[in-house]
Design a protein that fits this description.
The chain is of the alpha/beta class. It has nine helices and ten strands. The protein has two domains: about 15-45 and about 165-305, Rossmann fold (3-Layer(aba) Sandwich), CATH 3.40.50.1100; about 50-150, Rossmann fold. About 40% of the residues lie in helices and about 15% in strands. The strands form two sheets. A six-stranded mixed sheet has the order 1-2-10-7-8-9, sandwiched between helices. Strands 5-4-3-6 form a four-stranded parallel sheet, with helices on both faces. Strand 4 (about 95-105), helix 3 and strand 5 (about 120-125) form a beta-alpha-beta unit. Helix 1 crosses helix 2 (about 80-95) and helix 2 runs parallel beside helix 3.
């Protein structure tokens, strides 16, 4: 009897954009065996993050309104990186020039991927912050013919991508049984879209808006944090905090430790924002009655942060290899 059986697979598609969305749902039974905790694996989108949904939906909606013309329009966005990657991916497929503005706060891996996908990259000093990056996109748009600003922080299509897509997928995958959600907010589109739609299905749903310590939501004191893609120094226009039953602050240390624990227990190769979400989701599950089903998002992958947040220490192995090379060069050789 064969050990491996073929599973049903999706049919052949004609564009990488056809692979955006419909991500798997994983029960985190090894990470949290005592809880009914579930994670939607958004890092398995083709561009590697939940932001693929937003990028594609914003572009398609703009096309439907006649705001974009392939071969003539230039899409411009300020981003921590993942929305930029999603836009670069979609613009390459749809035929738009794409300019992405980032600051040096964010990982070099994401910058490299943005360029690899054909977008033009502008990198500003981290001191200007996201507000400064947004200002720079506006300046670019004033002097580039056919410029279109996607404006993720104020674009209602950011919210619609998650209300019409992510939330409905969650509801179907969970068979209409969702008691709580914990979702970190950056631009705020995923929190607002998912929670708003799920609460329309289940008005008793408990929703926690999650942020890193140092983010401003809930009138918190603004400080510095390291985990990328979540939190803000100002409240984005698309973030509806009235949907939050609680705003939860998570330290960088807890976020990164949880991401590493997910890698070790579940084999999900995720980054710090996924750890932030999961840490909060576990606290939410523990606060609800036994058997309550809590959902969160695993937003993006660990590989795009390895220069900043190593997931394992390989210094001993590298040192041993260097020692063997040195001995081999001296004529001693080595054996296993």
């Amino acid at each position: 009897m064969p050990v491996t059986r073929a599973k049903p697979c999706s049919p052949v598609v004609d564009s990488v954009l056809d692979l955006v969305g419909c991500t798997p749902m994983l029960r985190l039974g090894r990470f949290a065996p005592e809880a009914q905790l579930f994670a939607k694996l958004e890092y398995l989108n083709p561009g590697g993050s939940v932001k693929d949904r937003v990028a594609l939906h914003m572009l398609r909606a703009a096309e439907a309104r006649g705001e974009l013309q392939p071969g003539r329009s230039t899409v411009i966005e300020a981003t921590a990186g993942n929305t930029g990657l999603g836009l670069a991916l979609a613009c390459r497929a749809l035929g738009y020039r794409c300019i992405i503005v980032m600051t040096t706060k964010y990982s070099v891996e994401k910058m490299q991927l943005v360029k690899a996908l054909g977008a033009e990259l502008v990198v500003l000093p981290r001191e200007v912050g996201m507000d400064g990056a947004v200002d720079h996109t506006r300046a670019l748009a004033q002097r580039i013919p056919g410029a279109w600003l996607s404006r993720q922080y104020e674009n209602a299509d950011n919210v619609a991508a998650h209300a019409e897509g992510t939330a409905e997928e969650i509801w179907r995958q969970m068979e209409g049984r969702v008691d709580g959600v914990a979702i970190a907010a950056g631009s705020g589109g995923s929190f607002t879209g998912i929670v708003g739609r799920l609460k329309s299905h289940n008005p008793r749903l408990v929703a926690w808006c999650v942020q890193p310590v140092g983010s401003c939501y809930g009138d918190r004191e603004v400080g510095a944090w390291q985990v990328e893609g979540i939190g803000s120094t100002s409240v984005p226009a698309v973030l509806d905090l009235s949907l939050a039953d609680r705003i939860v602050d998570v330290s960088d240390e807890d976020s990164l430790a949880t991401a590493r624990a997910l890698i070790a227990t579940e084999g999900t190769l995720v980054g710090g924002s996924s750890g932030c979400n999961t840490w909060a989701a576990l606290q939410l599950a523990r606060s609800l009655p036994p058997g309550s089903r809590v959902v969160t998002l695993l937003c993006d992958g660990a590989e795009r942060y390895l220069s900043k947040f190593p997931v394992a220490d390989v210094s001993r192995e590298l040192a041993a290899s260097a020692d063997l090379e040195s001995r081999a060069g001296s004529g001693f050789g080595h054996s296993l």
